[in-house]
Amino acid sequence: MSVGRGTRLPGRTDVLIVGGGPVGLALACALRTAGVDHVVVERRSAPAPYSRAAALHARTLESLAAVGVADDMVARGRPGRAFAARDGEQVLLTTPFDELDTPFPFVLAIPQETTEQVLEARLNDLGGGVHRGHTVLDVRRQYPGSTVLVSDDDTGAVQAVQARYVVGCDGIHSTVRERVGIPFRGHDRPHNFALIEFVMDWSGPEGEISFFFSPEGLLAVSHLPGDRYRIVALVDDDTPTPDLAAVQEMLDLRGPSAAGAKVRSLEMVSIWQVRHRLADTFADGPVFLVGDAAHVHSPVGAQGLNTGIQDALNLAWKLAAVLDGTASPGLLDTYDAERRPMAEGLLAFTAQLHDVSTMSDPASIHLRNSMLATLGRLPEFSSYLANRLAQLSVSYGGGAGTPKPAVGDRMPPRPGMSEGLGWSMLLPPDADLDAATRAAADSPTAISVAVSADLPHAVLVRPDGHVALTAPAAAAADLPARLRTWLNSR
Questions:
Q1: Among 108, 291, 443, 455, which residue has the fewest nearby CB atoms (within 10 Å)?
Q2: E strands, 203-286, where?
Q3: Can you list the residues of the chain whose pLDDT is less than 50?
């Protein structure tokens, strides 16, 4: 449900979210869960029926569990055990998602349309909603926040909304980014991709997202819920919009010959050019950029939407802590400090995947396939790649040389950790549980306390699942007091 068309926007809010796609909706759900006053505005009248993102990785599902939608996503998606690189019938390399240390050991094939529907339904259940049919015209800095001019697309009326913080979740052509004046640097890659959803019969690989490295060009195939399939295919610059016969030819030439693919109907076809862009900063005073407004890159690896949701969860708990007074405003500086370097590394990673996937020279293709086949026989490499693609290896640093999990590392979910966007203190078995529990009870920040047998030391885990502080078992009870200092010293 959206907020009724023609409904006047509030004149003031703590957080104005510009963009009601999956990233904006995830941020809104997180803020609503934390009790933060906010408003979401979106130009579209309804979720887009088709879109580019159709895979949710394990780390994203962990984050979505914190806002109460992961189980619904899994129920409406199709879990896959791996990404697989193939050369016709030959498997070159697989990524073992089913071996990951996570409650969600798979990649979930799910249309972005469904992701948006589930998130918006959750936001409605939490008492929130989206003001659809509203377009942001301008963002004007006005200490201590901003004044945002918003047009009602039905009536043409323009309204000013004063917001303490503004978050641009409005995509690659972000109005927020442009009005604030943040450069969006990068380049267009010399490749076009076709994105096609269709119904077909075939006996090809199932339970995975398959990448066929054919001399005719890359073809990635995933099975969506029901009888729908999706392919992402490298195409030439002058390729016309593919019809059913052209899609059939792509599968015949690039996929496994034994699969016997038979396309029955087309649901959606689009062609786009790959862009690599990175904003100079993800934060400018009280204005933040999240998702495609901050970074865009090749679709190879299915990292875009997943990264945007991680941006949203990183920012949400920090906004909540600053607005409720338990943290100093300086905590918000860590959003750009943590997420932009991560996105910069991601652009480099996806560029490598892109270049490897789009080779056209026969000699290079042969060498690539031979190298992938060799790497595919190394369990260590397959495990590394699975963790990297699933975004479980993201760390914000600060703990080099210490036992894992170190400060900044992701803490894999363990029994007893806080539900939702809460803080958790996990103790090794030899820590004083009673003393740690008493210390947590005295903290102005609510902290769940539990014992985890596989920890070498005590850890204090942030609401986004990363380690904030560590301590030897004997000093575990000091962590809540240290947290108060940590939150107010950023």
A1: 443
A2: 208-214, 217-223, 228-235, 262-279, 283-284
A3: 1
**Torsion over CA: 244, 249, 254, 255 (sign):** positive
Grouping H, G, I as helix, E, B as strand and the rest as coil, residue 446 is coil
Helix, strand, coil percentages (3-state) for the chain, rounded to 5, are: 35, 30, 35
pLDDT of residue 400: 62
Q: What are phi and psi of 165, to 5 degrees?
A: -135, 145
Beta carbons of 389 and 299 less than 8 angstroms apart:
no
Give the separation between CA 61 and CA 309, rounded to whole angstroms: 10
pLDDT in the model for residue 50: 63
Beta carbons within 8 Å of 475's beta carbon, 6+ residues apart: 458
**Residues constituting the chain:** 490
What are the distances in angstroms from CA 212 to CA 86, 93, 107, 166? 5, 11, 18, 42
Residue 489's pLDDT is 82
Residue 331 and residue 315: Cα distance in Å, rounded?
Answer: 10
Concatenate the DSSP letters of all residues of 89-101 into one string. Answer: TEEEEE--GGGSS
Count CA atoms closer than 13 A to 266's CA, side-chain side.
Answer: 15
pLDDT of residue 471: 96
pLDDT digits (tens, 9 = 90+) for 192-241: 888 999 999 988 888 888 888 888 888 889 999 988 999 988 888 788 88
Beta-carbon neighbour count of residue 153 at 10 Å? 15
Element of type H or E holding 78: strand 78-80
Tokens coding 240: 């016309």
Q: Angle at which helices 479-487 and 433-441 pack, to 10 degrees?
A: 40
The DSSP bridge pattern shows strands 423-427 and 295-296 to be: unpaired
Reported as half-sphere exposure (CB side, CA atoms, 13 A), residue 435 has a value of 13
Look-up: residue for tokens 């990363």? 466
Dist CA 383 CA 113 (whole Å): 31
In terms of C-beta density within 10 A (0-12 exposed, 13-18 middle, 19 or more buried), how is residue 489 classed?
A: exposed
Helices (H), 142-258: 175-180, 244-254
Q: At what angle do helices 304-323 and 22-33 cross, to 10 degrees?
A: 30
Helices 22-33 and 58-66, packing angle to 10 deg:
40
b/e for 213-236, b at 16 or more Cβ within 10 A?
A: bbeebbbbbbbbeeebbbbbbbbe
Is pTM beyond 0.85? Reply is yes
Q: CA–CA separation, 141 vs 41, rounded Å?
A: 18
Looking at residue 408, its pLDDT comes to: 94
CA quadruple 356, 360, 361, 366: dihedral sign? positive
Q: Which two tokens stand for residue 167?
A: 């978050």
The pair of three-digit structure tokens given for residue 241, joined into one six-digit string? 């919009």
Token code pair at residue 408: 């900044």
Cα–Cα distance list, 488 to 135, 311, 408, 484 (Å): 36, 22, 18, 6
Contacts of 245 (CB under 8 A, 6+ apart): none
